[in-house]
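Support request, please re-run this one:
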Amino acid sequence: MVLCAAAAPTAAAQPPAPQDEFKPVGNNPAPEQIPAAPLLIGAYIVVLGGLFFYVVSLSRRLGAVRQDVERLEGELKRRGRS
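Re-run finished. Output below.
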């Protein structure tokens, strides 16, 4: 047990054995290909959908502010004439 613990650090510190021959890169298996079109279309749908809902939200809030301004202008006119 003590011998295994003492030999472990020395085994990890040794460099790997050198290769004797050249191995070209072309013999490796092809990397996994992920189609980009569905991911790109999905990203555009998410961004444009978020933008659409943001614009709808802004238009509703703007309408509410416009109604408040018209109501306040009406109150100011009534108080000014009274």
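The chain has a mean pLDDT of 84. Residues 23 and 41 are 40 Å apart (CA to CA).
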